[in-house]
Amino acid sequence: MLSFGKKKIFALDIGSYSIKLIELNSSKKGYQLANMASVPLPPEAIVDGALMDTGAIVDAIRNLISSAGVKGGDVAVSVSGHSVIIKKISLPAMTENELADSIQWEAEQYIPFDIADVNLDFQILGPNAVDQTQIDVLLVAAKKEIIDDYTAVIAEAGLNAVVIDIDAFAAQNMVEINYPAEEGEVVATVNVGAELSNINIVKDGVSLFTRDVANGGNQFTEEIQKRFGVSYENADAAKLGGEVEGVDADEVKEVLQEVSGLLSSEIARTIDFFMATNPEDSVRKAYICGGGAKTEGLDKSLADKLGVPVEVVNPFSAISYNEKNFDPEYLDDVAPSFGVAVGLAIRREGD
Q1: Is residue 199 located within the same domain as residue 293?
Q2: Across 277-294, average pLDDT
Q3: Is the pTM of this model over 0.85?
Q4: What total of structural domains would you count in the chain?
Q5: Which of 66, 116, 271, 284 has the smallest C-beta neighbourhood within 10 Å, fewest atoms?
Q6: DSSP H/E element including 3
Q7: Residue 220: which CATH number?
Q8: Strand order of the sheet with strand 197-203?
Q9: Does 163 lie in the same domain as 75?
Q10: Phi (first) and psi of residue 165, to 5 degrees
Q11: Phi and psi for 301 in degrees, rounded to 5?
């Protein structure tokens, strides 16, 4: 949302578990995968969106750029967490220029931060459905501190951040090119990250409601760690299906199912809250992406709680690629974790 001319850029999804890179070529025929890579981050290098170990993050970005063969350039990144506020508000009807002039004052009423400490962006959604003298506006605020931190590490790695988006909106962009919705259909996109899950409810390309919940893939690792008394690294390996001494694979499945139930309940509560306050906009389907999306039982548990179909997305389903350069089995395996990165790669500077 926060754009800083339209030329090609590549995406960096800087998550708390890993950093992912995607580069797409676009033509009249659609998108083609040009480059992809990922590199892990040390535990707690990023906590709740805050960059705690900038040296490790810069090193990881440099290693990623080197392994991908990228020479540097302009990038799109995204942020989420408690430093980001997204609100749909209604204001007296005015032009975009008039709103740009008054947005600081209007935002002060809705943003729980000092307005001088945030970067603001907005999008006019259209006339209010109930009162035609009003317009609906999507207001986005991100603390300048977190924006400055992200742009600084990117600059130190030799790159230039030209687009700063929001994780939930990037995931929305990805779903829209791969899974076009019918007109008027309300869908939920859930990005299950390591620490946070971003929930975005969308209708006709417009975000109706967003919320971040402080639960994600790390919950699964931490529960395995506690249950079996193993290191975080071994617990993470067991979560991903690896053999770990002293850890029973069947018991790991039970843990994953238990935590899937807890996480899906939290996600379902958020979506149920939206539907209770917006009965005319019932969610008809949910799409899940992110590193935690393929965790055993999560999609089924969420479908049971919501009573609607839930699909683990493949962000590359509508993107062509050369099988000589990209292994289809590998893409299928890692696809959900690249959801935000693909959504960012669609962005162009100035759009």
Answers
A1: yes
A2: 93
A3: yes
A4: 3
A5: 116
A6: strand 2-3
A7: 3.30.420.40
A8: 206-213, 197-203, 186-192, 285-289, 310-312
A9: yes
A10: -105, -175
A11: -60, -45
Q: Annotate 14-66 with DSSP letters as a single string.
A: E-SSEEEEEEEEEETTEEEEEEEEEEE--TTSEETTEES-HHHHHHHHHHHHH
Tell me: do 190 and 69 sit in the same domain: no
Domain check: are 3 and 108 in the same one? no
Query: Quick one: pLDDT band at residue 5, thresholds 50, 70, 90?
Result: very low
- Indicate whether 206 and 296 sit together in one domain: yes
Domain range for 221 is 180-312
pLDDT digits (tens, 9 = 90+) for 293-311: 988 889 999 999 999 999 9
229 and 319 in a single domain? The answer is no
Instruction: Return contacts of 134-138, CB within 8 angstroms, 24+ apart.
Output: 134/90, 134/91, 134/92, 134/93, 135/90, 135/91, 135/92, 135/93, 135/94, 136/88, 136/89, 136/90, 137/88, 137/89, 137/90, 137/91, 137/99, 138/86, 138/87, 138/88, 138/206, 138/207
Residues 77 and 94 in one domain: no
3 state DSSP class of 11: strand
Q: Report the sign of the C-alpha dihedral through residues 199, 204, 207, 208, in that order.
A: negative
The token pair that represents 167 in the structure block: 């994780």
Residue with tokens 């009807």: 93
How distant, in Å, are the alpha carbons of 29, 85, 337 from that of 26?
8, 31, 22
